[in-house]
Amino acid sequence: MKGDYPHLPGRGRGIRAKIALTMTKKALLAIDGGGIRGIIPLCALVEMERQINKPAREVFSFLAGTSTGAIIIAALSQGMPAAQVLDMYVKIGPQAFRFDLLHFLGSLASYKYRSAGLAEIMQPYLGVAPLNALPVDIMITATRVSDGKAYYFVRDNEANSQTTGNLRLLDCVVASAAAPTYFDPWNVPTIGPCVDGGVGVAGNPVYQMCTEAFYYTAPGRYAPENSVIISLGTGYVTAMAAPHNMVDWVKFVIGELLESPAEQQTQITQRHFGERGAVVYRFNPQMPRDIGMDNVKAIPELVQIGKVLAQGLNWADMLAGVTADLRVPPRPQSRNLR
User: Fold this and answer.
1) DSSP for 84-136?
2) Can you tell me the distance from the alpha carbon of 187 to that of 198, in angstroms, rounded to the nearest whole number?
3) Would you state the pLDDT for residue 336?
């Protein structure tokens, strides 16, 4: 029931009144891929729900995610409070990243974990409902193996091609989370085997989300000048461990392939839509060390890192689009070269 979330303490009438008066823009949320490091943006969302005293599904009109971001936004779209999704990550992380030696050898060392196992773990949380049954707009990214085509799974509406809304939320999420070398491809009915949407440029799906919202939904539903766009990353490091062998190099290449375009996508979003009035925020904190996407032993550390970083966020001002903190800067002025 709306507002019935006892785990979310109120912040007093002042903040709630401020939000009601100033939050006239629609809020759109995009979350990067990054495996178990999805705990970082989850902590930010837990803090958001604590401050705003509403679940994310009632705050954001459009939710987009890639890989671990797809898992998070799928759970949020079901009405799960962020704190419950965080608890889910702590609980299922070790199960999802459970090394399967038999299948590893059977795949000729192609992947370490089974997508079927991930689907089994996630089904109690996501059920079997199709995207069209969701009460909010959603986008989940994936890449088809047979031809490398990018897929953006969204609800059907009169302005799009109406080809993905009947797909199960569960299938879309598992396909998006099937990062090469980590999970085997997941077969999506009518489309075929798919892998992580970050294989390409959608490791951060913020630009794809905005394109869908502003061009492929009903006219007037979204407009840049009436939108606050919030892009949450899963943390970055300035220096990664140097690869020493073939396995290290494969992990390095896959990691860079999935994560490197993230900041570029935010900049493109600002240049394209920020200049048309959208307010764009990016939260992607620097990590104290390099934590692998499947390093479940680091879960307690990630929770602590995330909680500390999230405390500095003023969600009321961000959702109202009135704070400069974390706002993506406009395109720098070109210099007149002589």
Assistant:
1) HHHHHHHHHHHHHT---HHHHHHTTSS-SB-HHHHHHHHHHHHTT-BGGG-SS
2) 17
3) 37
Please list the residues that pair with 196 across neighbouring strands: 142
Query: Got the DSSP string for 147-211?
Result: T--EEEEE---TTS---STTSBHHHHHHHHH--TTTB--EEETTTEEEEETTTTTTTSTHHHHHH
Q: Return the higher-pLDDT residue of 270 and 7.
A: 270
Residue at 96: amino acid letter:
A
| Cα separation, 282 vs 116, whole angstroms | 33
| Tens digits of residue pLDDT in 34-57 | 999 999 999 999 999 999 999 999
Burial class (CB in 10 A: 0-12, 13-18, 19+), 1: exposed
Phi, psi dihedral angles at 183 (to 5 degrees): -125, 150
Q: In 10 A of CB 338, how many CB atoms? A: 3
236 is written with which tokens? 């970055």
What phi and psi values does residue 227 have, to the nearest 5 degrees? -130, 140
Percent of the chain with pLDDT over 70: 83
Evaluate if pTM is beyond 0.70: yes
- Closest CA relative to residue 254, chosen from 312, 313, 203, 326: 203
247 token code pair:
């396995």
